[in-house]
Design brief:
The structure holds two protein chains of two kinds. Chain A is mainly beta. Chain A contains no helices and eleven strands. In chain A, the strands form two sheets. In chain A, strands 2, 4, 5, 6, 9, 10 and 11 form a seven-stranded mixed β-sheet that branches. A four-stranded antiparallel β-sheet of chain A has the order 1-3-8-7, with no helix packed on it. In chain A, a hairpin with a 2-residue loop joins strand 5 and strand 6. Chain B is mainly beta. In chain B, 5% of the residues lie in helices and 48% in strands. The radius of gyration of chain B is 15 Å and the shape is globular. In chain B, strand 5 and strand 6 form a beta hairpin. The chains are: A mainly beta, B mainly beta.
Chain lengths: 112, 124
């Protein structure tokens, strides 16, 4: 019973070629988060949606954008991926920012 | 800003033995939550246990328990009767109640702060 689903699980892209990562959830949570996790590091929050309100972290590069067309789906768009964007991208959801976050399995992105 | 420190990058434990992972944090707030998340090699982050700062009683979930010392700002995780499936990266995390609520005003505050993690190996 997958609750937070991420597609694809693995993505290889070329330097500068736009890529979109997808997250969907069956929990009906109103908050969705995108994290970047580089090898052997803690997850780093990129941004989150509280309902339709977009909250960007101060140090998230402009290269990263997000869309949330409805409650269930949230997309991460990387407009011009650089080699340094190679990482695992984790999606998480919660009911309200106060509640526990539930994570998806992640998308491992490799930029060549 | 809050910080979370995990001073043990790697730990190992014999199967069936007990291990304790340490976590300290820095905050000036009185209301907050603390979490331990587990990330196995498959990389899906799973919640292990959570502790409300206002509760004096230490949280317990089966073989997992915490030692929460609010005055010392310490939040260690004890794993009893370790199993091979416990091998994973363990992240300690902090969430400010005030910031989480204040973010309703679109203040952009970070809801969850992670430590750098402790990699636990379980030896058969």
């Amino acid at each position: 019973d997958a609750m937070v689903i991420q597609n694809p699980r693995y993505q290889v892209t070329q330097f500068g070629k736009p890529v979109t990562l997808s997250c969907s959830q069956t929990l009906n949570h109103n908050v969705m988060y995108w994290y970047q996790q580089k090898s052997s590091q803690a997850p780093k929050l990129l941004f989150h949606y509280y309902d339709k309100d977009f909250n960007n972290e101060a140090d998230t590069p402009d290269n990263f954008q997000s869309r949330r067309p409805n409650t269930s789906f949230c997309f991460l768009d990387i407009r011009s991926p650089g080699l340094g964007d190679t990482a695992m991208y984790l999606c998480a959801t919660s009911w309200g920012r106060q509640e526990t976050q539930y994570f998806g399995p992640g998308t491992r992105l490799l930029v060549l | 800003a809050q910080t979370v420190t995990q001073s043990q990058p790697e730990m190992s434990v014999q199967e069936a033995e007990t291990v304790t992972l340490s976590c300290t944090y820095d905050t000036s707030e009185s209301d907050y939550y603390l979490f331990w998340y587990k990330q196995p090699p498959s990389r899906q982050m799973i919640l292990v246990i959570r502790q409300e700062a206002y509760k004096q009683q230490n949280a317990t979930e089966n073989r997992f328990s915490v030692n929460f010392q609010k005055a010392a700002k310490s939040f260690s995780l004890k794993i009893s009767d370790s199993q091979l499936g416990d091998a994973a990266m363990y992240f300690c995390a902090y969430r400010s109640e005030a910031l989480a609520l204040g973010a309703h005003l679109n203040s952009g505050n970070t809801p969850l702060v992670f430590g750098k993690g402790t990699r636990l190996s379980v030896i058969a």
